[in-house]
Structure formats: C-alpha cells, structure tokens
Write a structure and sequence with these properties.
This protein has 9 helices and 36 strands. By secondary structure, the protein is of the alpha+beta class. The protein has a 5-stranded mixed beta sheet with strand order 34-35-3-4-36, with no helix packed on it. Strands 13-19-16-15-14 form a 5-stranded mixed beta sheet, with no helix packed on it. Strands 5-6-7-8 form a 4-stranded antiparallel beta sheet. β6 and β7 form a beta hairpin. α1 crosses α2. The longest helix is centred in the N-terminal third of the chain and has 37 residues. The two termini are 42 Å apart.
Length: 637
C-alpha cells in the first residue's frame, strides 16, 4: 500500500494550555508519554511532583484531596511505582518529608540521659546496619534488573516470524495490499554525477550535472518510464546500483576497480549515466562497498564484482580484482535458504538469509566480521596482516555485558540463546556493522520483549553505542535499546553511515549514535532524534552517508543534516552545504519518499508516484535526461 496520503510541513501543538511544570502543554505530556511508553496521567503526575517524589505542598497549589492541613503530603503513586521499579524501594511520605520531624526527634534525643543515649546509639547502629542491607538489596535489585533486561530468561523462548523477506517485491510475486515491500517510484539523485572529483578535487559546482537538489534522473531516456523498486549505495561508495520493479539492475559512478560490473569488464574511471548490468537474471537486492558490489538474484543467489584485495567479494579466491560477476561462496547456509539482504562496509561484506542467519567476509582488522577475532599477525617487521575471510561464513555467537560500572572491565558473555538468534535487518558503516533481531511471532512466549539490536566492529566515535570507544569483535547486545519503553516501540530496522549508526522503531522514531560531522561531539549511546519525534513525525525512510543523514516521514517531510560539499544534502544552489541540525529539504516538501540510500558525495531516493496527489507534489522536483548530460558524457569519455 502507498504511504499515508496526509502531508504536512510542520506539526501544530494540540493545546497551548500549560498543564505541567516548566510550561509543558498537554501535547508535550502526550509526546513524552508516547516516548516513555507510559500513560499520560502517570507522566503528568511525575512532572508535577517536580522530582520530590511527593505532591507539592506549596501555597500556590491546592492540597491533595483527603490530606488534612499540616500533615505530610501523600506520595505520588506514579513516582513511587517508578522508584520501586528502579530498585529503590517504596518512597514513603515520612522518608521524603524530612525537615521538622527530623529536627524535633534530634532535639528530644539530646535531652536524654547517658543510658538513653546508649540505647539510642544501639538503635541507630541497628538502623545503619538495616540501611546498609537495604542499600545492598537495592543494588542487587538494580543489577538483576539490568541483567534481566539485557539477558532475558532463556525459558522465554523466542519464536521468530520467518522467513525473512527481501526489501523489494520479487518481480515474480503479485502485488498484495498487505505486503511491506518498498513501494516502487521515480529515481531521484542529489549530489554531483561527476564521480571523478568526489573526495579528490574541489571545484565550484556550477555544471548542469552537479545536482545540488533532488532531481529525477533519466526517467524516460534510460528507464523508459519504469519505476525503480530498490536503490543501493553506501557511505564508502561513489557508485550506485538501482533495480527496477521488473528486476533489471542498472549501475553508474566510479568504476576504477570494475565495481560497476559492466558486461565488457571495463575499469573506466567513471560511468556517467545508468547502464543496464548484463548479468542474467532478475534481481531483488544489492549492496556496495568502496570498490566492490554485490547483487542478489531472485532465486536467492548472491554475486559479487570489483576489488577483492581483502576477500570482500566472498568468492573464495585470493585474486585481488574480480572484473566479472561471480557467485559468492556461502558456508553453512541451508540448501533451501535464500540470500535476501546484503550490506557492505569499505572492505567487508555481510549477507543475511531467509532463515535469519548472518554471514560475513572480507577485512577483519577491526573485528567487523563478527567472528570474535582480528587474527592479527606480523607479515614483516613493520607490516601487520589480519585473518581476513575470502568466503562468507556464518556468525552465530552473540554476546552481552551489563552496563553497571563495576562490570565495565569484565569481558562480554554469550547470550543464553546465542545459537538461536535470528537477524531481520543489517547495515554497515565504514568498518562496523549494526543488526536488529528478526520480528517475533505472536505465539512466542517473549512477544512482550523488544527486538534486540547488536553492533560490532570499529568502535571509534561511539559508533557502536556502548558508551566507550572500543572495538567489538563479536555482535554485542546494545543495552540502551532494551529498556521498558521499547516493549511497545521495538526497533525494527537499522541504517549506518561512515561513523554513525541508527535504529528505526515501530512508531517511526530514530535513535542515533556516533558522529557524522567533522566538528562537534560524538553521541556515545543511542539518542532519540527528538526534533522529529517531538513533532509527531513518523519516519519511514532513513540512511546515513559519508558525512550526511537523511530522514523522510510518511507525511511527505524530508530532513537532512551533516556536511554535503557535493550537494548531497539537497538544499539547492546558493544555499548552505552543511547543517548541524535536521533541516527541511524544501524541494521535497509534500513529496513522499519510499526509500533513501546515502552514498559518498551523493544521495539516492525513490519518489512515490502512485496517484494524482503524488503527481501534483512532484511537479516542483527538477528532472534531467540524457540530452542534458552530454557535457558529462564527454568529460568521462
């Protein structure tokens, strides 16, 4: 089904009446309640108690019903429940009131004789011992809670909703109103088509092929009006692959290592315009690294081409350049299972099959293969090598570690159900991978648990979300995304940029960690992109590029931010090429984006073109055909 038809540029508050401390309106309370997974009344009670744990007794507020004047206020039930759940025990009114009662008790004690003081001291000693026991119990409770969140009881068997599907509808499959495939549409690109200069040469972007705003690319002259169902590039790639709804694959961009996979095995420096890939078959997915590419055929077979110096093509050979498409070697896959998804980092690749099992190949320097090691060894006195893998091997060990400070230096341990974990979505940055667990069946005893997110590889800039800049050699559970609020708003899909990771939840909220700009602080743990969530935007398409992030909502609002010196942010000519905060892409206002893929120096997107409202919205989007790109063809020839 096409996305929701309602469009808007900004959300208006439901109410301007202040109902919570700090000037909060009812709309603010509702938004916060949705993010926390609590009832609005409970959130309102917590806000109005202002952190005291009890109803305020200020003269400016009316007394709580049933509380006589001069008596201690009654504890807020919502706050008490929250504190109890956090392991601090029940918050009593007497414990919170403090002040006068404590002072009068102290005064009475000071007037007692020595015997009374001794008795009081004994009582106080017993009280201190009791307090220590209570504190110890509370600490154990918090530790047990952290452990139970991150390491669920293995008796809660997770039954997965299998098989895992491809993201685009297979060409041989009939349309179904209830399917969750990407809706086909028109291909658009922002960012220069001159792949020769990206990351190498700085020049003024004043040519017609320097696309500085989203532009519909060669819809008639190359695609013949066919809709595009899948777009693929990556934060390390300066080339692209798209697949039409009938399964034909097209490629263009940088081709110095033969990564475009042209039928003649050409290694020209630049393929200026989309060219149909000559590999036989119908395709349903693709993934791109810095200088290699992977295509997934409808029957579930993966093919690779391009640079293979570290084995990233996974074709079980040490040949450094694969100039024609070759079938990938996948070890440990069941014969009936199909490869359905692929993701590529700079020099490594990850595959996902229909059973939810994951396979990786390529460079092992930062642990990005997820096999628990880098295999570092000396080739010569001043040269180090790593245990790279030239074929795809299954990775079945998933680990976790408590976030408690005392456990920070302890090694990670395997999850009780490590061998049974199934993955539903994968994404790769330059040297790291992030994955989310497959969806659970309703019959599963663990259906109230969120889908778990794992990350591993290079941990620079906090990209893995574990709060430290440390490489992880095995898929590690991302504890911050296992809290109670995710039980009703589970992560469902992931994306990655060069040095950032993102997770999308059921309610369309995006959580971000890492860093994608050359300035500013890194986000060490997943943080909500609240600019969108607080305005009730439901994100449906998102991705990260070399130094950019794109998010698009179901209502036709698209934002981007980061550094985009090649026009990949889509802000237009004579407009800024960078933004520290999410900024509206004005040319895409009211345009629904079905999918987006961010590359290095460019961004690809699929624009919805399902009905008259869509056609009206995309009239303001620029178009370019082959006749307009003769200068580019001449430059690249």
């Amino acid at each position: 089904m096409p996305p929701t038809r309602k469009r808007r540029s900004r959300s208006k508050p439901d109410s301007s009446e202040v109902v919570a401390s700090g000037g909060g309106t009812q709309s603010d309370v509702n938004n916060l309640a949705k993010k926390l997974g609590l009832e609005s009344d409970a959130v309102s009670a917590i806000l109005n108690c202002e952190g005291s744990g009890v109803a305020s007794s200020r003269s400016s507020r009316s007394s709580a019903p049933g509380v006589a004047s001069g008596t201690a206020p009654v504890a807020s039930s919502a706050w008490s429940d929250f504190m109890t759940e956090e392991g601090f025990g029940v918050v009593s009114a007497s414990a919170s009131s403090g002040g006068a009662a404590g002072a009068s008790t102290s005064a009475a004690t000071s007037t007692k004789n020595t015997t009374a003081e001794d008795t009081s001291a004994k009582k106080e000693s017993g009280k201190m011992e009791g307090d220590e026991e209570s504190a110890s119990a509370a600490k154990r409770s918090r530790t047990e809670k952290t452990s139970s969140n991150a390491n669920p009881d293995p008796s809660g068997k997770r039954a997965y909703d299998l098989p895992i599907l491809t993201r685009m509808r297979p060409p041989s499959q009939a349309k179904n109103a209830d399917d969750k495939y990407i809706v086909p549409g028109l291909l658009a690109q922002t960012g220069t088509l001159d792949s020769k200069i990206v990351g190498r040469t700085k020049r003024t972007l004043n040519q017609e092929f320097d696309l500085q705003e989203p532009t519909i690319l060669c819809n008639e002259s190359i695609f013949g009006g066919q809709k595009v169902a899948f777009v693929a590039t990556s934060s390390s790639a300066v080339h692209s692959i798209v697949i039409t709804e009938n399964g034909d694959a097209y490629t263009w961009g940088r081709n110095e290592a033969g990564q475009c996979g042209l039928s003649n095995g050409s290694t020209s420096s630049c393929v200026p315009l989309p060219v149909k890939i000559g590999l036989e078959g119908k395709f349903v997915g693709a993934a791109l690294g810095k200088a290699h590419s992977i295509l997934i055929e409808e029957g579930g077979t993966a093919y690779a081409v391009g640079n293979n110096k570290y084995g990233q093509c996974g074709v079980n050979t040490s040949v450094e350049a694969i100039l024609s498409w070759r079938k990938c070697s996948v070890v440990g896959k069941a014969s009936e299972a199909k490869i359905v998804q692929a993701a590529c980092g700079e020099n490594f690749s990850v595959l996902l099959d229909s059973d939810g099992f994951m396979y990786s190949a390529g460079l092992a320097e930062f642990g990005q293969l997820g096999n628990g090691e880098t295999g570092e060894y000396f080739i010569a006195a001043n040269k180090i090598g790593f245990a790279n893998d030239s074929k795809f091997e299954r990775r079945s060990v998933f680990v976790w570690k408590s976030d408690d400070y005392e456990d920070a230096k302890k090694p990670c341990g395997p999850l009780p159900d490590s061998d049974d974990v199934r993955i539903g979505s994968i994404a790769c940055g330059k040297n790291h991978t992030i994955a989310v667990e497959a969806p659970l069946r309703k019959s599963s005893t663990a259906t109230n648990e969120p889908q778990r997110v794992f990350s591993w590889g290079c941990g620079g800039y906090g990209v893995l979300g574990h709060g430290v800049q440390k490489d992880e050699y095995t898929p590690r559970l991302l504890n911050p995304l296992t809290g109670p609020i995710f039980k009703s708003n589970s992560p469902v899909r992931v994306a990655a940029g060069t040095h950032c990771s993102m997770a999308l939840t059921e309610n369309g909220h995006v959580y971000y960690c890492g860093k994608h700009r050359s300035v500013g602080e890194a986000t060490m743990r997943p943080a909500l992109v609240d600019v969108l969530a607080n305005n009730m935007h439901v994100v449906t398409a998102f991705d990260g590029g070399g130094m950019t992030v794109f998010c698009s909502t179901q209502n036709g609002v698209t934002v981007s931010w980061g550094n985009g010196q090649m026009g990949e942010l889509g802000y237009g000519i004579n407009n800024p090429k960078s933004s520290s905060k999410p900024k509206f892409v004005e040319k895409l206002d009211s345009v629904i984006i079905c999918d987006v893929s961010c590359g290095y120096g460019h961004t690809l997107m699929i624009i919805c073109d399902e009905d008259e409202e869509d056609k009206k919205a995309i009239k303001k989007v620029s178009r370019i055909e082959t006749d307009d790109l003769k200068a580019l063809v001449k430059k690249c020839s």
